[in-house]
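The data are quoted verbatim for reference:
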Amino acid sequence: MHYGEIISLIVLGFGALLGVSALVSPSWASGIVRLVADPDPDKPGGYSEFRATFGGLFMFSHLMTAALLLTVSRSDVNLLSVLVVLPLAAGWVGAAFGRTVSLVLDREKNRAKGMIPVWIMMEFLVGLAIAAPILHFL
């Protein structure tokens, strides 16, 4: 197994762990992303959204990408490893891009403005780390 695939698998495990954590504790996920349930007493909840989007979606998309990467890494065709991880890696880079747009356009609406550049860099690096199988070609 190539070191780029190992890097990717470690970060995919991290993403799956984030998903499991959000699935088990939606209040933890709520605190991480700084979103809160609707304060209107007629609209309680919001936990199903955290469990679904930040829990199940994160966990299963990262686990499936890791499973596919483990499967194709056994072949001699290195391009398959890159193709397997590219969609999820692009999603993380896209999250960094969206957060950058928010940093520029939503200046007064953002809370904890000093943390936004940290999140941008983290999401960008996670995307690059998931795409690490491309190092086969360097």
